[in-house]
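Our preliminary data section would be incomplete without showing what the modeling component actually yields. Below, a chain of 106 amino acids is followed by its predicted structure, encoded as tokens that our downstream tools consume directly.
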Amino acid sequence: MRTFPKELAEFRRVVEARGAALRQLSREELLAAGNQPIEDLQVQRRQATIAVIIESQSDGSLLVVVQGFMPGRWLGIWTNVALDGFYKRPDGKVDPAPESELYKFD
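Predicted structure:
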């Protein structure tokens, strides 16, 4: 039994796919791709927004966060959020970002 709308599941897959594609980029490619414009898209006829945030860390790593927002279906009084994030280390290693790191951006 499904407990949330199927378009929300699809939206989460889109955000996760963006994160997976970004994990394949080198640190230099991620730096060059920084400050991408916010992307508006439709997921099964519902509006959504995806933003990519790339932040340099003091140890030379990059924190990469993919934030997805989809307005709630009923009355628009809440927003569905999908997040993905990771650290790209100077040696090219990829480590998952803790969930608390994904929520610190407004």
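The longest helix spans residues 6-23. The chain has a mean pLDDT of 88. Preliminary results of this kind motivate Aim 1 of the renewal.
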